[in-house]
Amino acid sequence: MNANMRVTIFIIGFLTLAATGITLCDGKSSALCIESERQALLQFKQDIIDRSNRLSSWADPGDCCNWVGVSCDNLTGHVYKLDLRPSSISDYASDAEIGVYWRSMLRGRINPSLLLLKHLSHLDLSLNNFGGLQIPQFLGSMESLTYLDLSKAGFGGALPHQLGNLSKLQYLNLGVTSFRYQLVEARNLQWLSGLSSLQYLDLSGVDLSKATDWLQVTNKLPSLVELHLSACLLYDDPSPITVNYTSLSTLDLSNNYISPSVPMWIFSLGSLVSLDLSTNSFESLIPNSFQNMSSLKFLDLSINSFNSSIPGWLFSLKHLEFLSLRGNLLQGKIPSAIGNLSSIISLDLSGNQLEGILPTSVENLFNLRQLDLSDNKIDQETSEVLQSLSRCCSDDLRSLNMANNNLTGHLSDEVGQFKSLSNLLLSQNSISGPIPASLGNLSSLKYIDISDNQLDGSLPQSLGQLKSLEYLNIAYNLLEGAVPEVVFSHLTRLRVLKATQNKLKFEAKSNWVPPFQCQTIEMGYWFLGPKFPTWLQFQKDLSTLDISSAGISDVVPSWFWNFTSKLVSLNISHNQLEGEIPYLSVHKLVDLRSNRFTGPLPRVLPDVATLFFSNNSFSGSLSHFFCDYELGEPKLFLLQLETNLLSGDIPDCWVKWRGIRVLNMGNNNLTGKIPDSLGSLGFMFLNLRNNKLSGELPLTLQNNTDLFMLDVGENQFSGNIPKWIGESLPNLAILSLRSNSFAGHIPQELCQLSSLQILDLGDNKISGAIPKCFKDLSAMATKPNNTDAVIDFFVDGEFIRSELLVMKGRVDEYSTTLSLVTTMDLSNNNLIGEIPKELASLAGLQSLNLSGNSFIGRIPDHVGNMRLLESLDFSRNHLHGSIPVSFSNLNFLSHLNLSYNNLTGRIPTSTQLQSFDKFSYVGNQLCGPPVTENCSRKIETPKNVTNEDGHEEDEGWFEKYWIYASVAIGYVVGFWGVVAPLYFIKSWGLAYYEKVDSIGRKLSKLWVKTGT
Fold first, then answer.
1. Beta-ladder partners of 65
2. In this predicted model, what pLDDT tens digit does every residue of 270-289 receive, in sequence order?
3. Cβ proximity of 607 and 635 under 8 Å
4. Cis-peptide into 530, omega within 30 deg
5. 614 dihedral zone (left: phi>0; alpha: psi -120 to 50; beta)
6. Residue 1001: helix, strand or coil by DSSP?
7. Which of 474, 539, 552, 679 is deepest in the core (most CB within 10 A)?
8. Crossing angle for the helix pair 957-973 and 988-1010, to the nearest 10 degrees
């Protein structure tokens, strides 16, 4: 055979082999699938629960090399790779997409048939859900494995030591991120010693608190390049050994409890390229030994307690590409040496206490792609920041986060120079002026958050050019004007729109179809009306909707109630929406406050946690809502029904509603007694104010040991004030029994309520003396704390309670400032005796009202020590003697009423006491300003006159009753002058008309009595 023939045969053979190889690679030949391996895979599938049919291609007959997740060797046909990891999911995935992802997770158990895959070298079952199943021990017999990834797949129990038999293994990831299942743990790691080829090891989330050998064992792995031990419950150094990680380049010890300093052995790792020590308990200064680690490109020291200033030497690590010092206690200015980080790509100094301005040396950071300086105290003009950054990286900067600083000035046109910017976060600053039109030039922009600033003007139409935009947050600014459809016409990728608390008006035609599918739309305080916005019906992925205070005055269309089935949160409050609601299929929070909804309370889903139905016209009994509920066990936590037209008795069917902790049914027409089953729920807040409830308070209420507020005022309750209120409700901060028919003495047990800030027992039939032990009400003895968790109670960002209080001679509503209020009101009862001097020790009281009782004796001398008093009313008692000189110390006093007692002598001189008009002192024998100019003339005792019927009448009856009118008129005229900055929400209209009506009734009675 000549040479040419040999070459020809060789070429033909080569081409044949190549063709065969191509066929094998394509996996189209039925001969490629090894029958025994195909059967092994089918057996594996039988034990897998595949809810999304991901493995539908795994069928018999079939070529296993064509199956999803299966890869075969091009020449031999043996299965060498099995990758069953689910597809990834977007950060802004809709509920539907999340549901699809959740169903795509494989479940079930791992069949030992995998042992028949003798040539399997790559096995990836990560991101599935095996429900706490222990990692199978037989995996340790699959000796061909070089790659094993079981991370985040829901495995539990102890790690099998049999995995140590996998001597060829190069990649091992057993990381855990969720503790939904039983704890994954390892008591020792000696089994790792057999993995001599291991290059990558990730045990993140595995409990290694008892594996004290982790450092010794991993140190002996000769090929180890990456070691990830995040969140492994590691504490201090296990032992002072000398380490010799010859090839280690990546070390992750984040989210552990290592303290108080960085272990010294880490600084001997001269070849280390990536080091993550975030979220430990390191303190004091950043060790200067880091400057010897010249190979470092990635350094994360975030979420520790490093303090002092940022050391300048840290920026000598010129190879650093990623540096994070986020969430420490670093202070002072950013050093100018920061400009030495010539290789830096990502720099995160957020969450510290850095102040001042950015040094000009940032202009040297030519490779910078991500800069995060959020949550600091940087005080600089926004335009100056943008100018500095534009000189170094205007073409390449992708993420800029300076949220929650002290930036001022305008968001200037320079922002349009950052052509590659995808994330811009400048929220919670003091940036003013308009949004620049140049923002529309940033074609790569995906995420914008400029909320909580002072931006004004209109929304520029150029925002409509941001075709890549997914997240837009412009909420809590001063934007105004009309927004045309064109602003949204090209935002096809928009997933989150947060724009509440502006004064914008959206002008959309009735047939407008949005180009986007949003997950969140928050447009509260926009003007979207007067018709209900029909374009919402095209939002198929919506889970959060807020169109509150949007000027909508319309009947809610029927399609909307069907549309809500995917909603997690719905807020359509403070509009003028009408109609009856057949049902609500929202899943978590519903806010319908302040509308005109009628009919019975609508049915809700059992997983709803928060319901605001207040200030509507819902009517009928409560039985339909509570007793006829058949959709499952409700998870309702908060229910507000106040100010509706609900009537009838409170039903006795609360057993299935045991999750309710906050209940407000005030201002309705409820009658009858409080049923025992209601009292046994375990409330934190209970408000039944202003109904027609009667009887005594049920004994079951004493089981509500977490109760912070109890308001049953303005009802028809009777009996004595229960002693168990003081004995069994230790956390009570607000107690209002006002305007009922409670009788008997004030129980001494109330003195045990050390957290009590508001006590209102006014307008009852209580007799006896004030207990001297009231001095033990310690929350009234100290200055109010606005961080008090008892009253500052929020659900989903909503303050869940308010309270009507009689202060300064009027009725006001307090909500967000309630934690700053301390008041005691015992007025209009039958209390006798002297005012206890012990009350003067309640130095934190802001309002004290003892009017309309039968107190005798003198005003306690030390009342003037109650320096926080803003309102004091001792009127209509039988007090005598002089006004204590200590009253001159009451510098915050803005309401004083001492009228109609038997007080004598000079009114003490002070700025406050002389600022009140004479009606604060009428009906006494006082002298001096403002009653008289001086005390030289004798003050005559008011005489009684006899009317035609022979009854005695005060000469000054007009003065006596004119005080009521003066309070009401003074409230209207002097509202803004007298109200302290503390009080922002005022229900003064109701109080005013009620007071005028009360005056009218009193005057009418008097006219009848006198015959005039």
1. none
2. 889 999 999 999 998 999 99
3. yes
4. yes
5. beta
6. helix
7. 474
8. 160
Our CA angle for 272, 275, 311, nearest 5°, is 105
**Cα→Cα distances 87→46, 83, 97, 102, 202, Å:** 22, 11, 11, 11, 21
Distance CA 374, CA 878 (A): 62
Burial annotation 731-741 (CB, 10 A radius, 16+ → b, else e):
bbbbbbbbbbe
C-alpha span between 908 and 916 (Å, rounded): 13
Residue 336's alpha-carbon distances to 254, 387, 861, in angstroms, are 29, 17, 63
Q: Quote the pLDDT of residue 981.
A: 35
| Sign of the torsion formed by the C-alpha atoms of 693, 697, 698 and 701 | positive
CA nearest 701: which of 720, 675, 739? 675
Q: Is residue 642 predicted with pLDDT exceeding 70?
A: yes
Q: Which residues pair with 1009 in a beta bridge?
A: none
3-state secondary structure of 300: strand
Q: In the block, which residue shows the tokens 């590691």?
A: 234
Q: Following CA atoms 997, 1002, 1003, 1007 in sequence, which dihedral angle do they give, to the nearest 10 degrees?
A: 140
Q: In whole angstroms, give the CA distance from residue 558 to residue 564.
A: 11
pLDDT at position 962 is: 38
Whether the CB-CB separation of 502 and 479 falls below 8 Å is answered with yes
Alpha-carbon distance 364 to 361, whole Å?
A: 6
pLDDT in tens, 149-196: 999 999 999 999 999 999 999 999 999 865 444 578 999 999 999 999
Q: Where are the domains of the chain?
A: 1-120, 133-238
Question: What is the per-residue burial (b if ≥16 Cβ within 10 Å, else e) of 981-992?
Answer: eebeebebeebb
* Inter-residue contact 655 to 677 (CB < 8 Å): yes
pLDDT over 90 at 256, yes or no? yes
**Lowest model confidence (mean pLDDT) among 149-158, 439-448, 767-776, 927-936:** 927-936
Query: Model confidence at 878, in pLDDT bands (50, 70, 90)?
Result: very high
Residue pair 720/740 in contact (Cβ under 8 Å)? The answer is no
User: Of 83, 81, 80, 72, nearest to 31 (Cα)?
Assistant: 72
Cis-peptide, bond into residue 930, ω within 30° of zero: yes
Structure tokens at 488: 């949204």
Under a CB-based contact definition with an 8 Å cutoff, are residues 143 and 174 in contact?
no
**Residues, the chain, total?**
1012
CA angle 930, 934, 940 (to 5 degrees): 90
Residue range 10-66, pLDDT digits in tens: 333 433 333 333 333 333 434 478 999 999 999 999 999 999 999 999 987 778 999
End-to-end CA distance of the chain: 145
Contact 746, 766 (CB under 8 A): yes
DSSP symbols for 885-954:
GGGGG-TT--EEE--SSEEEEEPPP-TTGGGS-GGGTTTSEEESTTT-S-S-SPPPPPPEEE-TTS-EEE
Residues 6+ apart with CB under 8 A from 537: 559, 560, 563
Render the burial of 951-970: b for 16+ CB within 10 Å, e for the rest.
Answer: eeeeeeeebbebbbeebbeb
Q: How far apart are CA 148 and CA 155, in angstroms?
A: 14
Alpha-carbon distance of 337 to 331, in angstroms, equals 16
Average pLDDT over residues 126-133: 92
CA distance linking residue 84 with residue 92, whole number of Å? 24
What residues have CB less than 8 Å from 277, skipping those under 6 apart? 253, 254, 258, 262, 266, 300, 301, 304
Q: What is the pLDDT of residues 498-515, one digit of tens each?
A: 999 999 999 888 899 999
Predicted confidence (pLDDT) at residue 687 exceeds the cutoff of 60 = yes
Q: At 81, give phi and psi (nearest 5°).
A: -140, 135
Q: Read off the pTM.
A: 0.80
CATH 3.80.10.10 fits domain 133-238:
yes
